[in-house]
Amino acid sequence: MNIPFAESYKIKMVEPIRRSNCNEREQWIKEAKYNLFNLQSNQVFVDLLTDSGTGAMSDRQWSEMMLGDESYAGASSYYKLKSAITEITGFPYFLPTHQGRAAENVLFSALIKEGDLIPGNSHFDTTKGHIEFRKAKAIDCTIDEAFDTTLDHPFKGNVDIRKLEKMLSSNPIERIPMIIITATCNSSGGQPVSMQNFREVSKLAKKFGVKVIIDSARFAENAYFIKIREKEYANHSIREIVKEMFSYADGMTMSSKKDAIVNMGGFIGLRDQELFQKASVFNIMFEGFITYGGMSGRDMNALAQGLYEGTEFDYLETRINQVAFLGEMLKAAGVPVQYPFGGHAIFIDAKRFLPQVPKEQFIAQTLAVELYIEGGIRGVEIGTILADRDPETRENRFPDLELVRLAIPRRTYTNNHLHYVAAHIINVWERRNDIKTGYSIHYEAPIMRHFTVELEKI
Ligand code: F0G
Fold this sequence. Notes:
Layout (H helix, E strand, L loop, with lengths): L21 H10 L14 E2 L11 H7 L10 H14 L3 E5 L2 H12 L5 E4 L4 H9 L3 E4 L20 H9 L8 E5 L12 H14 L2 E5 L3 H11 L8 H10 L3 E5 L10 E5 L2 H14 L10 H14 L2 H20 L12 E5 H4 L9 H13 L1 E2 L1 E3 L1 H4 L15 E5 L7 H16 L8 E5 L10 E4 L1
Parallel strand pairs: 1-10, 3-4, 5-6, 6-7
Antiparallel strand pairs: 2-8, 7-8, 9-12, 11-12, 13-14
Helix pairs in contact: 1-14, 2-11, 3-11, 4-5, 4-10, 6-7, 8-9, 12-16, 14-16
């Protein structure tokens, strides 16, 4: 008999979750203005809204919490975290921040000015938000293969080197302060970037004198894919791969809520002292003194421990296999899911699931609401609502992909939960032809509208 995959940890503490029925959920989502962010968590049975800050800490992380040093300046927790970051990433300088977007805010304050152009591989929405807030522009140079959900390509997060070179050579170089590589690439489906691609981007950046910054939220999952998919790295350890990835960059921003398996936290890693000093000023203004930057000592301790655990092969193998477990069940039933499966989430291709819903009625949002009503499953729209309006024309941006992301929190749900999720999604798939219309916008914020948007059923 084939040996099934088993988790590399066992459960010591549990949290009850409430079941609900379809009638209750129909009422709740109506009250939430058809925005899944507005639901109360006890109205959700399996919460796949995000893998960010929703993971379960280990017993070792919890024990580190008790050892936190809460001194304002120079806490031992800061030095513990600094040593973990330098050991794992190789960056000699670091600034703690309260989460990933805060790291973006601080670093971009030091690097980006009005009119700048920031190329990268499908920038995450907070990254794009912080770029556009400074009246600069994010330029997407992801490979075209990323936008075909059926195409089998091992590194759909890759930067298209030709697009990047064209972009760098056809614009004034003083307007391009950096290239941002997001690894894994959340917006293209949790897809990894190859080591070869890191190397090529770095070479090109050096030629043009432009910095490379890695948006590192899921750097360890990226390293796992490099080990499994890039032949020369099969015998490298995850930590060796991580070190090499970062060696191609001048700096990193980190949302520690993902691959460092803590509930809150972030940081910036840098190679250059001058940039560190410049960013330190903004850190003090926005986040806190440079030895805590918005984090408690205990949280820095748990983060240091989480960085070690998040870069262990056995943990990553469990993690990526659990995500694929859900993906395989959906794929086997014919549900259109992005392939290969991403590192942190399964992405349903909503355009292929509900081709009859017009794009102006928010296809992926329509599907996400349907999955909630069906099974109390909360995913998230990665489509037109998230893509927001063009900052100049104020027209809706219709992205190539309309996706529903089912993000799997780390070490939180069992495979039975995912089996339950798959069964409900397959039920919706079987009655998909009955879903004919979507939603219109009743209220939206001027930037990052998806968090607070209010919708009406058409
Ligand atoms: N970069 C990437 C690639 C992200 O996925 C996120 C957050 C951030 C930066 C910002 O970090 O949330 O700590 O401020 N992604 C979450 C998600 C929100 O659900 O994918 P943050």
